[in-house]
């Protein structure tokens, strides 16, 4: 059983990793803006909608081909390598080889049968080469997980928050003005960004792990790895699928313009989702260590702590982006203002999903099959709600904006159900509560809403330039004063003081 000091050390490690990735989140936010400007203003909603529909299948297939190593690699290394660094290296290369095999099969299948990627047609003949990103995406996920196992989160920040978003932004702008490549610009920019990310993580990985030694891949071991990975792969694919299913269904039932409007709103709303996943790479090693020694109470404390950190920050982001929603969506052009309601639902969805994601980070290790079964039920619920709400909006003649809002509302309801069910299951398995709710969240949100609503009566430029900082400042002041205890404030301390180390980790 770990000591109280070791538990506090774990929380300090989680805080350090989350703090680093929070900085990365801000950098990613800044870097993503030019891409959205180019995609919406230069290429237009229809081209953006076709591009978004194609990405749905690409991202899901690539995630499956990564074999759930984003979370599963930490457990494989913890159980299979011990302190043998050479064995760790070989295990990582086993995962990469298997991912490349699956990626090659998947990419080949999509080259032969590309129709599912393009329900609304293609922007250009170059779009088919989006399949080339599948192996690069899968291998990058594994390399980042390997670095995270050594507590190297800075590489994830450089790759996901700097190189990939800035590359796709710059490339999208450049390709638009290249004769003959204008229509292919979005697809080519995405391909370039994924391979730029792969090269960014490959160098630190080789310095950390090096090349394999006495590595002899075994077909039997590969088969066992595939079998063991299935529950995690399924959970990862479904969790990501909940963020992509709505676009896929919109691509089938709605025109490309509706998909483009929704995608623009989703790109803004997905920023808090990226923050939520900031803790995943660093949470996995800490959880697997406590599982190995059977310290369930420590795991519950970590879930409560990290869950509150995430929901507190995400709620603030949702208020900052949602209250001036019309002004934010108007930045991409007048056609995109129709997506304001979709943006509000998507931001709310990310807030209610916080507990589900943190709970699943533990369930994939201690209740894989039950977690997968719940995830399957949730995505089925989302599919039914999405189709029903889209068709209801269409039959009522409400327009593309309401169809997009229906898809977003379905996502919010499904994720709320997921959070409730998974938190109840995890609490029962750990024998300790995992709830992250605190009334301070209500007080802070109410104060921010009052301030934000007041700014909606002013011109949009004032609402954006002065209203957003005012909302953020109000929310931060209240949540810091009423919601954050000493154990919470470790997230914002670069060096943890001894006094904080002696504090109880319970919230």
Q: Topology, please?
A:
Blueprint: H1 4-65, H2 69-80, H3 85-112, H4 133-149, H5 154-176, H6 185-208, H7 219-253, H8 256-276, H9 280-293, H10 296-322, H11 325-330, H12 340-352, H13 354-366, H14 368-395, H15 400-430, H16 440-455, H17 460-482, H18 498-501
Low-confidence stretches: 495-507
Number of helices: 18
Helix content estimate: over 70%
Distance between the termini: 20 Å
- Residue-averaged pLDDT, rounded? 81
Strand content: under 5%
Largest pleated sheet? none
Element pattern in H and E = HHHHHHHHHHHHHHHHHH
Q: Which assembly state applies to the chains in this document?
A: single chain
Derived structural class: mainly alpha
Structural Rg: 22 Å
Shape: globular
Number of strands: 0
């Amino acid at each position: 059983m770990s000591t109280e000091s070791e538990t506090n050390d774990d929380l300090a490690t989680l805080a350090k990793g989350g703090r680093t990735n929070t900085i990365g989140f801000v950098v990613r936010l800044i870097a993503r803006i030019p891409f959205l400007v180019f995609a919406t203003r230069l290429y237009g909603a229809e081209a953006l909608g076709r591009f978004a529909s194609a990405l749905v299948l690409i991202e899901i297939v690539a995630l499956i081909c990564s074999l759930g190593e984003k979370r599963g690699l930490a457990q494989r290394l913890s159980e299979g390598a011990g302190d043998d660094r050479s064995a760790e290296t070989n295990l990582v290369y086993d995962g990469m080889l298997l991912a490349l095999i699956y990626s090659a099969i998947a990419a080949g299948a999509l080259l032969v049968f590309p129709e599912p990627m393009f329900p609304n047609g293609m922007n250009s003949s170059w779009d088919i080469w989006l399949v080339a990103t599948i192996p690069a995406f899968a291998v990058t996920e594994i390399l980042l997980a390997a670095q995270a196992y050594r507590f190297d989160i800075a590489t994830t920040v450089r790759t996901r928050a700097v190189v990939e978003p800035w590359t796709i932004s710059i490339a999208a702008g450049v390709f638009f003005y290249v004769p003959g490549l204008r229509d292919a610009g979005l697809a080519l920019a995405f391909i370039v960004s994924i391979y730029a990310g792969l090269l960014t993580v490959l160098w630190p990985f080789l310095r950390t792990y090096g090349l394999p030694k006495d590595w002899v891949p075994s077909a039997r071991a590969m088969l066992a790895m595939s079998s063991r990975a299935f529950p995690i792969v399924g959970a990862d694919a479904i969790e990501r699928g909940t963020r992509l299913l709505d676009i896929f269904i919109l691509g089938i039932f709605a025109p490309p313009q509706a998909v483009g409007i929704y995608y623009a709103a989703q790109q803004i709303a997905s920023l808090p989702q990226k923050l939520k996943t900031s803790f995943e790479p660093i949470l996995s090693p800490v959880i697997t260590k406590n599982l190995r020694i059977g310290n369930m109470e420590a795991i519950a404390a970590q879930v409560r702590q990290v869950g509150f950190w995430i929901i507190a920050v995400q709620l603030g982001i949702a208020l900052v982006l949602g209250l001036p929603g019309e002004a934010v969506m108007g930045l991409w052009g007048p056609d995109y203002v129709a997506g304001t309601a979709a943006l509000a639902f998507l931001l709310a969805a990310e807030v209610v999903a916080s507990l589900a994601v943190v709970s699943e980070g533990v369930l994939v290790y201690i209740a894989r099959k039950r977690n997968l079964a719940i995830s399957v039920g949730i995505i089925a619920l989302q599919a039914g709600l999405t189709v029903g709400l889209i068709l209801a909006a269409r039959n009522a003649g409400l327009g593309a904006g309401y169809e997009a809002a229906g898809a977003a509302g379905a996502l919010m309801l499904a994720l709320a159900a997921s959070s409730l069910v998974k938190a109840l299951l995890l609490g029962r398995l750990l024998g300790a509560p995992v709830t992250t709710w605190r009334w301070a969240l209500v007080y802070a949100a109410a104060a921010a809403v009052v301030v934000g609503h007041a700014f909606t009566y002013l011109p949009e430029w004032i609402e954006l330039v002065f209203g957003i900082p005012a909302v953020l400042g109000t929310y931060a002041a209240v949540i810091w004063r009423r919601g954050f205890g000493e154990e919470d404030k470790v997230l914002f301390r670069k060096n943890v003081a001894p006094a904080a180390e002696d504090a109880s980790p319970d919230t």
